[in-house]
Design brief:
This protein is mainly α. It contains 7 helices and no strands.
């Protein structure tokens, strides 16, 4: 069973590995550090898989919350959006000219799924909303909203050719959505 303390420690390890991966991709010389990149990807993937699977086992495997039948509550929309955003980011940092189209597909899909996820909030009952109130949920909402706003800004900057601004706002999107996801595991 995954205790909250261990989950937080593993989440910090996962975030550090992901940040190290992003930094390695940004500051590598062309054709260098491929093995280090794969080490970071493997470490990050293994830790995140362990966190998610352990959470699903300890809480009962609920992709969709059975009590509410809401697609917003659970992993069915948030996790695929987050994985898609992360893959799109890694691809464009690995080789931008080669993967920029795939980056657009992955990150655009993540943005669409997240907007659908937010629209589904309208259908939550007042009781469900009250069940998820509190400081952690407030931070979850703030990080998710920040990620959504900066994601839309990143899309608009990217579409208009402002690559530096698109990259900067994209990193804020990545940080906001990862933070919201990790806090969501604690809800």
């Amino acid at each position: 069973m995954l205790t909250p303390d261990l989950q937080i420690i593993l989440s910090v390890v996962a975030v550090v590995a992901f940040i190290a991966l992003i930094l390695t991709l940004n500051f590598r010389r062309q054709g260098k550090m491929k093995s280090l990149i794969w080490i970071w990807i493997t470490l990050f993937g293994a830790v995140m898989t362990f966190i998610v699977v352990s959470d699903m086992i300890s809480n009962g495997i609920e992709i969709i919350d059975s009590a509410s039948n809401s697609w917003h509550i659970g992993l069915i929309l948030g996790l695929p959006a987050l994985i898609s955003l992360s893959i799109g980011t890694i691809l464009v940092l690995y080789d931008e000219p080669k993967y920029v189209l795939w980056h657009g597909y992955f990150t655009g899909g993540a943005l669409i799924v997240t907007i659908i996820n937010i629209i589904l909030l309208i259908f939550l009952t007042p009781t469900e909303v009250l069940n998820y109130s509190g400081l952690i949920h407030t931070l979850h909402i703030m990080l998710g909203a920040t990620g959504l706003i900066t994601g839309i800004a990143s899309f608009l900057f990217g579409a208009s050719g402002q690559r530096n601004l698109a990259r900067l706002t994209g990193y804020f999107t990545l940080a906001g959505w990862w933070g919201a996801f990790l806090l969501g595991l604690l809800l």
